[in-house]
Amino acid sequence: MSGGIKITESRCRGCANCIRSCPTEALRVIDGVVRLLPDLCIDCGECIRSCKDRAITVNDDEWDLIKTREGLVLMADPAFYVQVGAYSRPRLMMEALESHGYNDLSEWASLAFDLSAFASAKIIREGGENLPYISTYCPAVIRLIQMNYPELVGRILPVESPLETAVTIWREETGAKENVTLVSPCPAKATLVRNPVGRKRSSLEYVVSVRTVIRDMLACNVKVTGAKTRPVSGRWLLWSTSGGEARHIASFFDKGFTSISVSGLRNTQDLLNELELGRLSGVDFIECRACDLGCFGGTGTYESRFLSQLRLNNIDAEWMPSSEEMERIRHWHDRGVWELAAPVVPRERLPLSKDIKEAMAKLREMDAIYADLPHIDCGACGRPSCRALAEDIVRGQGDVSDCVFKMRERITQLSEEIQCLSSKLPHTLHTGRKRRRS
Ligand code: SF4
Ligand code: SF4
């Protein structure tokens, strides 16, 4: 179920650009307005990119309300720290947050990302038939696998998102009870909070996009001096770029770790197709990010992804944790806070009926309707494909006349019938001939 996408109907012009971009056919244009089928949405954000009228946006919680809370606690995504020129280094960004009076959990995030990489390395080293394992970090990719590649779910690493783990450790170490707001680069991480995979409830409470917070900070013109800086590890920040997570995991291997990292939905789908066909033997780990270049390519970010990449390239990452850091990592590893509470399972598409017999009958009906459609997936009916229209018809949410080709056929047929009928009119009703003069 989606939670990361917001549709503003008044802005939609019904152009249907978005329905073609959606990898799971979760959008329709009905009566000139876009509609979301939340159960099919994986929150990849492709529709946000394709809509020039901003009718589809990231579904933020009310930042104007959230930010008025005293001692606000923010769990910012790594992509947040490489967004703006004025705060071009992560340390400066942290100082800006502090000057605002916000509590930023980067210290715990740094530990949690180390812990995730350490735990992942341990599982991968133990190997087994699930190799190559797939990263759990991008929620859009996980949902895509659940929906379109159900036979690959067993390969998903049973490792919790480090953003969740950071909050869990922070609560346990400090006893803090305050609500935590995730500053997210994308709709997918928003659903991590609202509808998490692998756990019943998120340890975070609210979510706002990186763009919203950055805009606000820029509007307030928070000055930073660099005087209040505190040391911060660069390792976890590199998870926001494609290949950063794999590099972090590799640092816990002495030798013999093979990984493939891709970004962008198309590359992700190509790689998963190859994995499904059994072509990736000898690979230990697959890291896919739905967004181009990584999380700073997310639809909720502020900065150009190319500039963010440039800033990230300037971050020095000391890949080996210090002995004190290693001690903390081992401690929390033994506590098991990094584990997914429940395995990731396939997500069924909406059944045509709860009754199996009826569902089978509807499937046959759908096949028959589809066979009669033109199979060109033009999108003029407001559906992403002819098959989607056939499905909507059997669900009672569409009509064959929604297809412009079927409509044209019907109009041609009707006009022929009218012509035929008119030629059969009784002579008394013919109007075109001259009346005989008496
Ligand atoms: S977020 Fe992705 S899956 Fe959801 S409606 Fe948009 S394009 Fe489709
Ligand atoms: S790549 Fe990162 S920003 Fe993009 S959908 Fe995945 S988690 Fe979100």
How does this model look, in words?
- The chain is an alpha/beta fold and 438 residues long.
- It folds into three domains: 5-57, 2-Layer Sandwich (Alpha-Beta Plaits); 63-335, no CATH class; 356-428, Electron transport complex subunit B, putative Fe-S cluster (3-methyladenine DNA Glycosylase II, Chain A, domain 3, Orthogonal Bundle).
- It is 40% helix and 9% strand.
- The chain has helices at residues 17-21, 46-50, 63-66, 90-99, 106-126, 139-148, 162-174, 187-194, 210-220, 244-250, 265-276, 305-313, 323-335, 356-372, 386-394, 404-423, and strands at 5-7, 27-30, 33-36, 56-58, 73-76, 103-104, 133-134, 180-184, 206-209, 259-263, 285-289.
- It has a four-stranded parallel β-sheet, with helices on both faces. Strands 7-11-10 form a three-stranded parallel β-sheet, with helices on one face. Strands 1-4 form a two-stranded antiparallel ribbon.
- α5 (106-126) packs across α7 (162-174), α5 (106-126) crosses α10 and α14 (356-372) crosses α15.
- The protein is elongated, with a radius of gyration of 27 Å.
- The relative contact order is 0.14.
- The mean pLDDT is 90.
- It binds iron/sulfur cluster (2 copies).
- One iron/sulfur cluster is lined by residues 44-45, 138-140, 185-186, 188-189, 289-291, 295, 298.
N-to-C CA distance: 80 Å
Strand order of the largest sheet: 6-5-8-9
The total of helices stands at 16
In N-to-C order, the SSE pattern is EHEEHEHEHEHEHHEHEHHEHEHHHHH
Which geometry do the CA atoms define?
A: elongated
The computed structural class is: alpha/beta
Q: Could you tell me the radius of gyration in angstroms?
A: 27 Å
Instruction: Please tell me the total number of domains.
Output: 3
| Poorly predicted runs | none
The percent range for helix content is 25-40%
Question: What fraction of residues sit in β-strands?
Answer: 5-15%
Q: How can the largest sheet be summarized?
A: 4 strands, parallel
Q: Report mean pLDDT, rounded to a whole number.
A: 90
What compounds sit in this structure?
iron/sulfur cluster
Q: Would you report the number of β strands?
A: 11
